[in-house]
User: Fold these one by one.
Assistant:
Number 1:
Amino acid sequence: MADLHPARDHLGDREPAVDFEAVYQGREIAYGADDRRSDLIPWRLDAPQPLVVELEAAGDIAGPVLECGCGLGDNALFLAGRGYEVTAFDAAPSAIERSRAKATAAGTPVTFTVADATELRGVAVPGGFRTVVDSAMLHCLDADQRRAYLAGLRRVCAPGAKLHVLCFRGELADRLGMPADMGERGLREAFADAWTIRRMEPRRYTTGLTLQQWRKLTPEVSSVPEQDDTVTVDRDGRILLPFWQITAELA
């Protein structure tokens, strides 16, 4: 999942960026203009993202599968455990190291690799991927990076491949300062070159944060969930954030 409004770069108008390698090494990173620091990984569930589980149960996954920005590997391990051939990449070497260790411990075959989403070097399978899962990576990219990423996916996917994207939406995306437009129109335009959007609907993305942790990290955007439609809480007390669920098909 993207950074929750990390400390802004002080060099001109450059967008904020989070040091994902530091995150996965367990180091504290800065959040917000007042330099709050935390070693929490907001998107860490130690389980697959429920929306990804839902996609698999609905028959919307076909192998071989590519997961983009796989983080700690739980989605990839879940899909491999369901019998799919899975390749997963992340830009953070520490995330990939930890994911490989989990795969070895579980005896679950997943090809984990370090790669840049805008280049996808070394990310390929014979015949191309038939499904791509992007669980909260797209919104980390600025407009140019997003364009390069979607073009790269076209090169490594088979004709008719499906791309499932979960990304920030609406007012919360604006308030958290995502590096590119996360509105419906802007996203549809971004996909238009190579992908046909078959589904785009508002959903809720499960985080590993409690309400108390969420408020501590993002007091400038936090409020009581019952009085604000930006966040809600599930039965386990985890914050659910407003996301887009997008399914696009490669021509």
Note: The first helix runs from residue 20 to 24.
Number 2:
Amino acid sequence: MARVSIQQKLSVDQELITSARLIKAGLGQVQSLHGGNDFYHLPLLTLASGFERLMKVTLCFRFLETEGRFPGIKEIPVGRNGHDLMVLLDLVKNKCFLPEYVGHIPVAKEDWDYLESDRFLSFLEALTRFGKSARYYHMDVVLGKDPDSLPPEREWEAIETSIFLSRDDLVQEMGENPAPQNIYRELNSEMVVIGERFARSLARLYTIGRIGSEAQAHMAHLSPFWGLKDSELGNSYYDPFGRV
């Protein structure tokens, strides 16, 4: 621990606070979407940044526990790869979902299985594409660069479509009423639940996951997520500005 400076400790604490607030703000921005507000770019940007930061902080805490120091710039994904949420998730699963945790605690196994589910991964893949390139899609077009992603509004539609096709009740409702407002409310609610479950699975690593003593000392910052019961998913209100 002698190789860890006070400034590093203060900064990792602030980074964890920032990640939690960004995730809450992103979920609030999803809840604020409606027919008169289709600014999909904002929640995509906020959620991508929040989850990227939370996974990186989590990896830093685990590195501190095993190595006695925080990782260097070459020991954690940075640059373009640093925005790849799929890569970060694989690292978190490999380094933080410890065998004794996943193998002996039922909710840990549930979290693991959820993080490997098609519904969740399609959501994370869309956030990854946005974080790596789609957020600059239109500027790339202006500058003559051939974009390697969909524009932000199409990425949002991709998330909605994956959720929609997984809900037989919504598919049936769409067939009976081609433009029901209820469907859009349900899609937004489902998106919030996906974000909540992802945040909860990461937050539990700080409590029952026991990834390190320093991580456990900071778990209060993630209390809005690790304490969520299944019956409470999708029922919380989140401020779109991330205010407490």
Note: The chain is about 65% helix and 0% strand.
